[in-house]
């Protein structure tokens, strides 16, 4: 991780859950970390959980990644304040569980999931790579995917969420080819967790003994992939809790 010391990381969906854990983990590892979130006050509160020597490394920018103008503005601010981005963690995601594909009048919710989980991810990656390419940086783009981006379980309705995560799987491979054809050494990695203890998981699943991962487990995985030598690209990393179906 030494080569990332002082480098700049952007984390989307940074106000809670996996995003919050990743922010703190990267800041402790010596990176300058910028959390993109609609509720920037929650990101700023995370500074209180960091050592005083680390807290100044954490910053927040208000951004709704379903809005292209917000994304472009956020990356421009990062360039102006910090020179550009070296690491992007595309973590933002929503599910709208309980709203089925065939539920009447569900158009707004379906579009929110697609725009957040897939379109926003691609636009953030585009802006990050533009910054990396401009500065001749061998950066790293990490997509927080899901096990349902590889296999759809039959016991629960996920509406269009698995389709967007399958899309992330395809996008990751497409980006790898684009980076290869551009002779870029920027890496792209998809991390696919099973159930993670976040606000999107029902409370009873957190307390009834269901095997479940902690957000810090995903943050540790990100440190692992970032810490690999330049010759190594972890393309897909699947993480499951012991005993879990998903």
From TrEMBL:
Keywords: Oxidoreductase. GO terms for molecular function: oxidoreductase activity, acting on the CH-OH group of donors, NAD or NADP as acceptor. The keyword Isomerase does not apply. InterPro entries: NAD(P)-bd_dom_sf (IPR036291), Sc_DH/Rdtase_CS (IPR020904), SDR_fam (IPR002347). Belongs to the short-chain dehydrogenases/reductases (SDR) family. This is Dehydrogenase. It comes from Anopheles farauti.
